[in-house]
Amino acid sequence: MIINPKILYFGTPVVLLSTENDDASANLAPMSSAWALGQTVVLGLGPEGHTANNLRKRPELVINLPDPRLWPAVEAIADLTGSDPVPEHKRPAYRHERDKFGAAGLTAVESLRVRPPRVAECPLQLEARVEHMALDASGEFVIVQVGVVTVHADPGIVGPAPTTLTHSNGVR
Ligand SMILES: Cc1cc2nc3c(=O)[nH]c(=O)nc-3n(C[C@H](O)[C@H](O)[C@H](O)COP(=O)(O)O)c2cc1C
User: Fold this and answer.
1) Domain for residue 36, yes or no?
2) Is the distance from CB of 32 to CB of 15 less than 8 angstroms?
3) pLDDT at position 166
4) In-domain check, residue 126
5) pTM greater than 0.90 (yes/no)
6) How far away, in angstroms, is 16 Cα from ligand 1 center?
7) What is the CATH number of the domain that holds 88?
8) Domain-embedded: residue 5
9) Best probe residue, ligand 1, of 9, 31, 41 (max atoms within 8 Å of C-beta)
10) Which end of the chain is more exposed for a tag (fewer CB within 10 A), N or C?
11) What is d(CA 138, CA 151) in angstroms, rounded to the nearest whole number?
């Protein structure tokens, strides 16, 4: 059977991107087109979205990975945008919200190396800087490559260090 889905979305974990607004407050956006390649994370964003605009002006972010229990917090901000006014293409599905951390009931904590805050409740928080940002071939999305500079992990999800067989001369 051949099908023609409108979008080829087969599901990837949701992340919450923290970015910095013009007034130095923080925006928080759920997104799921994210994947990692070494220390780089590749993000697919709407090119005119508030998050993309923040990243063009201030290329720092935190990629917060919620655990499944945080789904109500993600849902609470799913139809909110940091854009004011709400862009035409997002009406009437979205409404503007300046304080998405508050709307989600999540706690902002200072980051170590970037300006946007981390989400305290997320067990993994990746501080990152934009290294490359360009439209995709279709022109519909912007592909953002970010370099992760700090990884914060809840000790509860960190396993023991992998054992490696190392000879005395340091050669594995
Ligand atoms: C589960 C989920 C996944 C999403 N994935 C993406 C995505 O991969 N890329 C994207 O640009 N928007 C994605 N969105 C939509 C953004 O959250 C939406 O555009 C929102 O307005 C972004 O916030 P901002 O306008 O403050 O930047 C997703 C939304 C949800 C709820």
Assistant:
1) yes
2) yes
3) 58
4) yes
5) yes
6) 9
7) 2.30.110.10
8) no
9) 31
10) N
11) 32
